[in-house]
Design brief:
alpha/beta, 9 helices
């Protein structure tokens, strides 16, 4: 449930990538709760179809690999055929291939950049083709706290997320005069299935680094996305909204 009014995004169409689970699925639920029609995109065909069935209102599950430009183009065409417009793009799809740099395989570097950064490029470019004609749109990309402060064992992931910040600011400058805003949300450490598998002592050390004393939730991120997608954020573009419980302050 969104903290915004239930009608804040009524009549809008939102596409969320990496939406079959976790943060992406929470974003889809929250945008739908604000009245938007939601397209959930993911590479996992069965999971994304199941996820779409859980979303209130009009929702579509779409199989799409963001790293492949042809699949993204076809996906946007499907959105237009089904809904006739696209108002919000949430670039959430991302992967990790962690390892110390000295031992990192080139294919692990390439794969993370391909999905996280190139995927954001493919989706944003395709969405802009629609939004420019509409003279309105919101592009919201999910970055990360490690994109601003770094993290041991995640040189590839940190590089991809840092690049998304620069990419976002460039898009904001290029298309503000077409009514399109571009912003990023940078989550801190979020309570997900992955973090719950960490040993308790590791989770405790993480919490000790966070002034608010807890890991974030997918809903914390989803609320920030919903705000940036709404008219309440109409005069905000080129910004990074840090949602990290105070772990990093800049």
């Amino acid at each position: 449930m969104s903290a915004l009014a239930a009608e804040a995004l009524r009549g809008k169409v939102a596409l969320v990538t990496g939406a079959a689970q976790g943060i992406g699925l929470s974003i889809a639920h929250t945008l739908a709760g604000c009245g938007a029609s939601v397209v959930l995109a993911d590479v996992d065909a069965a999971a994304v179809q199941d996820a779409a069935k859980t979303v209130a209102g009009r929702a579509l599950g779409l199989v799409m690999n963001v790293a492949r430009g042809d699949e993204v183009t076809a996906g946007i065409e499907r959105v237009m055929a089904e809904f006739g417009r696209l108002d919000v793009l949430v670039n959430n799809a991302g992967i990790t291939r962690d390892g110390l740099l000295i031992r990192m395989k080139e294919e692990d570097w390439d794969r993370v950049i391909e999905v996280n950064l190139k995927g954001t490029f493919h989706c944003s470019k395709a969405a802009l083709g629609v939004m420019i004609k509409q003279r309105s749109g919101r592009i919201i990309s999910i970055a990360s706290i490690v994109g601003v402060m770094g993290n041991s064992g995640q040189a590839n992931y940190a590089a991809s997320k840092a690049a998304i910040l620069g990419f976002t600011k460039s898009v904001a400058r290029e298309y503000a005069n077409r009514g399109v805003t571009a912003n990023a949300v940078a989550p801190g450490f979020i309570k997900t299935a992955m973090t719950e598998r960490l040993p308790e002592d590791v989770q405790t050390r993480l919490r000790e680094q966070i002034p608010l004393g807890r890991l974030g939730t997918p809903d914390d991120i989803a609320q920030a996305v919903a705000f940036l997608a709404s008219d309440a954020a109409a005069y905000i573009t080129g910004q990074v909204l840090h949602v990290n419980g105070g772990m990093w302050m800049g």
